[in-house]
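User: Round two. Same drill as before: sequence, then structure, for each protein.

Assistant: Same drill it is. First protein:
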Amino acid sequence: MDKQDYKIHIVGAGVSGLIAATVLEQNGFSPIIIEATDRVGGRVKTDKINGYQLDQGFQVLLTAYPAAQKYLDYKSLELQHFLPGASIFKNKKQEVIGDPLRDTSLLFSTLFSSIGSFLDKKKKLKLNTRLKNKTIDQIFSDKERSTLSYLKALDFSESMINDFFKPFFSGIFLEDQLETSSRMFEFVYKMFGEGSAALPKGGIEEIPKQLLQKLENTT
């Protein structure tokens, strides 16, 4: 049976569906994508209202993601990069902490912020270094536990966990108790440390649009 005779249907034209179609095309198949809405993207879409670009959901691209590097053309996306840090609002005051080894402008704000103790900041830098030297295969074959128990085992203070790790990673894991696997925490933390968080100039929907444009034999 010729590959063109296979009837392959993909449900949903989100990023996963578009990547599935890409892989199938690379292997000689011509899939059909079934999509309920009027355009590709799934939960990765951008609405343009009154001249503003409004991205749907909590969405940034971590440039270190291996799959993103494999399937996306970063240059044509015109990525806009964020500083390697975070703004935290505590007691009606803005605190900025980050990685001063990657951007020296974050050194003083990180050192003098009330988010975590000096020891917490030292442990955070140590964690950055350790995960940079740990491969992705090692991360996903390592012992698994909750992210919360993992952070407590590293002896981070309760205030550092509650003021930084919980609010930051709750938005990524979509749960606020840090019950997500420590493997996923290490992977995401490593990705933040090795690359940057970025957004396409035209909004997050430029990612699925680019994937769509590369498809040649998909309906």
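Second protein:
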Amino acid sequence: MGGYSMADLWAILVMQGFSGLSLFSVLMLMALGLAIIFGQMGVINMAHGEFMTIGAYAIYVCSKVASTYLPALLPYYFVFAIAIAFLVAFGVGYAVEYLLIRHLYRRPLDTLLATWGLSLIMQQVFRSVFGAREVSATLPNWLMGAWKPTPTIDIPLNGLFVMLVSVLVTLAVVLFLYRSNWGLRVRATTQNRVMARAVGINTSRTDRITFALGCGIAGIAGAAFTTIASTGPTSGSLYIVDTFLVVVFGGTASLMGTLASAFSIAQAQSILTFFMTNAMGKVTTLLTIIVILMLRPEGLFTAKVRR
């Protein structure tokens, strides 16, 4: 195949697979937040990418503060900055739900148009505050370089780290939704809002926290994004289509489907773009997903809901 030996092909597949870990982590975290908002609440949030950008800019600001005022903390700041990125995106999401989204429930077209307008406003705010040029955070030294298990295979350390973060966040979300009283309220509100309200659940507060949680997870995706690319006002919008694709392909309201879909799409794009052009790799991946969705419109996994 293309003059490559079997050993070369194996090394390429392994390295491209691991290089796709960072893309997988970003898509996974973005789709996880969107699956909660779209799958659990039925809100089409076109500004979801901008919440990722909020997280990325939060990492950049923390990087500048650490390098300027607290240089001794540069090796350690990134872990704390991830938590700050989550809190900032969570807080903005909480305010957006209260001021805008809560007036548009059960009106999906209106939420689509309103959040699309919100995304444009947020992009302009980013330009006004941080400028139109892309910026990059200063990463700790332990995130740089690669691990070499063999002389022909290089595994990027940043990919391993952000994959660990995505796994921990996914486990936390699963525990939150399926092993906590608050998660029980979220699922009850999703399945039957009127009955949930009748048994004393504050559905408005549940919606607000759920929306903010999805935005906060997008903020963590922004933190992962800073390890693979620079941040600009439109960085988040570049991922919104892929994120919706992951959610629909995996099955709305299915966290397992989101995980499987994000991994499949990230690895397919990473490997195919090595042997093809970047555009052809994405087109091939998209066509494959379209064919699968034609055969299985509900996606890879479906949520079991009692009717």
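The first helix runs from residue 6 to 41.

User: Perfect.
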